[in-house]
Amino acid sequence: MKTIEQNNPTNQQTKRSLAQKYFLWLDPCEIWCLMRKKTRFNSTFYDCIQLALENSSDTICGLYAYDGDCYEVFRNIFWPVIMDYHKVDIRNLTFKHDFGDVQHIQDLSSDINKQILSIRIRINRSIQGYPMIPKLNLNQLLEIEERIRNAFEYLDQDLQGEYRSLKDISDMDQIDLREKSILFQKPAYQHAVNAVAYDQWPTGRGIFINKNQNFIIWINEEDNLSFISQSNDGKMNEIYERMIRAIEKLNQTFEFQQHQRLGYLNLSPMNIGTALQVNIHIKLLHLEKFNPLIEFCKKLDIHIENTNEYNIFNLSNVIRLGRTEFHIIRLMWDGIEQIIKQDIHQS
User: Fold this and answer.
1) Binding-site entries for ATP
2) Rg (CA), the chain
3) 219-245: per-residue pLDDT in tens?
4) Is the peptide bond before 187 cis (omega within 30 degrees of 0)?
5) Which CATH number fits domain 2-86: 1.10.260.40, 3.40.30.10, 3.40.50.150, 1.10.135.10?
6) How many degrees, rounded to 5, is the angle at CA 280 between CA 158 and CA 333?
């Protein structure tokens, strides 16, 4: 506790992470009990809160689950952080997984589609039977990579593509793939956590790319699997359908880590539940109305932010836990339609 208090002196306006906030709410006896516990993968309370202890203000959450059991074993810290971040009471929550029917996601009008520049859906999954990435040893990393590589054989039709191990990709090719937003960077937090797995970088990591480069899977980046479906148009139903088909195919080979209340479990408590992230780039015609638009987006549970290009904005879903995948996609898509319609009507 002293470490957090020293990093956040009361006479300074330092913003605490959520982990720091709720760590300080714990009684000394609770902290002592948590410090004595271990999960079946030997993850400790200190492992989970290390980022909060050593980095005072450069993170929102400050908490990582070194394996799926951490969410229960150390629930005294995880559950308050999750409820605060996701704005949902998980004590009476029952997680429901439902991709829904893609036929109910209709194309938008041509006028609206003109202002949609790109859509990108990402869903992360962690494989049952292993700890999370920071706790994996070299043999486990290689084992997971090989198992996933073999599973790609079951992907068919437009999902078929090529797997490339990160260690075999040249520096120039890596730069090119990152410029196209296809390849991942080394996680920024790897210096902040005691992560043995990152000592082996880039061993055990890789990327699967289909022939059209509109479906990608990252292997062992932050989580075991990061499914990405994308397109430079407004065909949300096609993008979402590719995502569903790929996840369901691989789910026949792997069991994903899941909790009855928290949904799908991953390294970060910010990315659990559906673990679904939608990013849509749109062009806005009336920047003078941007401040009212921010408030309008909040009502729709949509986050809006500037990109590096004039009048182009990135919109993403705020909610990942407490609703189904289909509900989140529909709300996001309906919200995009309302936002662009409002922009057009101001012309």
Assistant:
1) 118-122, 277-281, 300-305
2) 21
3) 999 899 999 999 998 899 999 999 999
4) no
5) 1.10.135.10
6) 85
- Other CB atoms within a 10 A radius of the CB of residue 255 amount to 11
C-alpha 46 chain-centroid distance: 23
pTM of the model: 0.91
Torsion sign across C-alpha atoms 232, 234, 240, 241 = negative
pLDDT (tens digit per residue) in 173-205: 988 888 888 888 876 655 445 455 566 788 899
Helix (H) or strand (E) holding 78: helix 75-86
Tell me the binding residues.
Answer: 118-122, 277-281, 300-305
Beta bridge partners of 312: 283
- Tell me which amino acid residue 311 is: N
CA dist 182 and 178 (Å) reads 6
* Contact status, residue 205 vs residue 145, Cβ threshold 8 Å: yes
DSSP secondary structure code for residue 39 in this structure: -
For the record, the structure tokens of 200 come out as 């082996």
3-state secondary structure of 51: helix
Angle at 221 between CA 56 and CA 240, to 5 degrees: 110
For the domain made up of 102-345, give the CATH fold. Answer: Creatine Kinase; Chain A, domain 2 (3.30.590)
Q: What angle do CA 136, 138, 139 make, to 5 degrees?
A: 95
Please state, in angstroms and rounded to a whole number, the distance separating the CA atoms of residues 4 and 19: 10
Give residue limits of the domains in the chain: 2-86, 102-345
What distance in Å separates the CA atoms of residue 315 and residue 337, rounded to the nearest whole number? 12
- Write the single-letter amino acid at 236: M
